[in-house]
Every structure is written in structure tokens, then in C-alpha cells.
Amino acid sequence: DGGITQSPKYLFRKEGQNVTLSCEQNLNHDAMYWYRQDPGQGLRLIYYSQIVNDFQKGDIAEGYSVSREKKESFPLTVTSAQKNPTAFYLCASSTTRLSSYEQYFGPGTRLTVT
Amino acid sequence: LAKTTQPISMDSYEGQEVNITCSHNNIATNDYITWYQQFPSQGPRFIIQGYKTKVTNEVASLFIPADRKSSTLSLPRVSLSDTAVYYCLVGDIGSGNTGKLIFGQGTTLQVKP
Question: Do residues B74 and B58 touch, judged by C-beta distance below 8 A?
């Protein structure tokens, strides 16, 4: 089955630790995205990448880092510099062809930092 | 990217048609209108996209008036499983599109039996 996988579904960490969230897609999409969602709120863009080895900051990139070494993978690291890391994290991918705004989302990772 | 305004919440009953309206007064000429659906603890799912007049697929219809300053998502005969948050997004999907989407708070639709 084609799709996006995120692991793990739930993640618990102690404050001060870096943590990496996994995102893999087998849709052959060029573009990948990371969003953060807080309770009762919409999604906010953290980072996005339109091509391998290139990525751009979104609206709330501070305290996060990403890499895009392979087309299929776009891991997100939540660093200890992120002041409020507890949230629901969503990864998405899309084609970069014109006339398409459809992003395919993974199931999400719920991160709790205490 | 144009800002959108939609109701925070709506209630409906099973079998009814639901219309959710989104305002986007600053929509640009190249902007398309897209709707997503999100269930709790899941990623959003694309529902429908349009530029003008009416678009229909197996799930919903999208009505866009001539001035394009608003749009209405229509869900026919809703069921309990349509209870979700619905997001309206506006953006340019032409050349130079970065794929950046701006999700507002969305409209929480509660379908009652």
C-alpha cells in the first residue's frame, strides 16, 4: 500500500533531551512537510522540503531541525531549544506538479515532554 | 496566502445537508480554494478543490460565487462519521507553488443522531 508512515505513534521524553520523529513515504512525492498541532488549533508549518538535500523553514522552525537525504524520508528532530515541544506532529507529502494542492498526511506522532 | 474565516463550530443531524461557508476576501487571481477534513488524532484528508463556480466529487460539492470572496462546502446527507474538523484553505497552486498551506482553526462539525 502506498502512503506515509510516522513512528512512533506516542513518544515520551524528558525535558532537555533531543528527540527525532520519523516520517517515510512511498508515494514518490518530491515535497515533504512537517506540521505541529496543539489542542483545538489548526496546523502550523515547521519545515518543508521540495527536493532532496534542500529544505526551508516554515512559520515555527525555532527549536527544530530536519534533514532530507533521501526522497522517501524527512525526519524531524525536536531539540532541547524548543520551549514547548509537547504537541501532535504531522508529516505530509505532495507532488510538486502544477495545479495540485493535495497533501497526503501521515497518522501523526504525539510527543509528550515532561 | 489569503486569510480565511469560517465558523468555529456547527451542529447537524444525521441525514441533513450541511453547508459550511468560508470567507476569503483577499483571494488573489491565481488562488485556488481547498477543503480538508480532520478526525481526532489523525492527519487531515483532502476533500475537494476548486477555482470558480461549482465542483462536485463523490464526497462533497464546492460552490464558489463569481466574486470568489467566499466559498461553501456542501456535505449531502451527513452521517455520524462526518463529525470532524473542516479546514478551508486558499493559495496559489500555479508556478512557484511551494506547497505551503495555512490551516486556520477550522470548523468543528458535530453530527447528532
Answer: no
Question: Per residue in B82-111, pLDDT tens?
Answer: 999 999 988 776 545 566 677 778 999 999
Distance CA(A54)–CA(A48), nearest Å, equals 9
| C-beta atoms of B100 and A58 within 8 A | yes
Q: Check B105 against A35: CB less than 8 A apart.
A: no
Question: Helix (H, G, I), strand (E, B), or coil: what is residue B80?
Answer: helix
Question: Which residues of B fall below an 8 Å CB-CB distance to A?
Answer: 32, 34, 41-46, 49, 87, 89, 91, 93-95, 97-106
Taking only the tens place, the pLDDT of each residue in B39-64 is 999 999 999 999 999 999 999 999 99
